Structures are given as structure tokens and as C-alpha cells.
Amino acid sequence: MQFPRLIIIVAAIVMLVGCSDAPVVTVTNRSPFTLSNVVVSGSGFSVGIDSIAKGREHRFTVHPKADSGVRLAFDAGNQHVDSGEHGYIEAGGGYRVSATVATNLSISFSSDLGSY
After folding, report:
1. Fold of 22-113
2. Which of 3, 16, 42, 98 has the greatest number of beta carbons closer than 10 A?
3. HSE-up of 59 (CA within 13 Å, CB side)?
């Protein structure tokens, strides 16, 4: 009767992995352009997004290897924009980072602990 115990153990592990407090990054585009070639990066992670339409947002989890800032780079119109490193997240603990692209293509960041 070891088989049912194994199933319970595997199910518990799967549930715990699914309940991760991995950091969540949200990129909001308030500019008049579609953002293309979007890259969000930090310590041990880099996420590429094909595009984010004007007025839309894209939310995703990241898995930094250590304490990290967040860098946002993208193309809009005929410009390439690179924020440099901003914000702060840790590998766990429920960190949330929001990056908002304004109408003039400036980028503001906010970081907090909490849930969305």
C-alpha cells in the first residue's frame, strides 16, 4: 500500500510549488505607441515580450537568483528606451514591481510587498 502514500506526497509537492511567492512584474503602457521588443531583466532573469499595445498591461512572474533591481527596455515609434536598473525585488516573499510607461515614454517604477 505504498502507492497511495506516494500519490499523496507527490500531490502535496505539486501544490506547494504552485503556491510560490515568486515576484510579479507588471508593465503598463500609457504611451501613444505600441511597445515592441520589450525586455524586462534583472539578476538571473530576462523576459522578452513581443509587444504591449497602447493602453494595455502585461503581468508575469520572474525568478531572480538574488536581490535584484528591474530593467525595462523597449522600442516605441522610432526610439529605443532603456530604463536602467530600478525597483527592488527578492527571490521570494511576494514582491510586486510595477513599471509604467508614460505618454512621453518616461518610465516610473514602484515596488511593494503584497498581492494583486
Report:
1. Immunoglobulin-like (2.60.40)
2. 42
3. 8
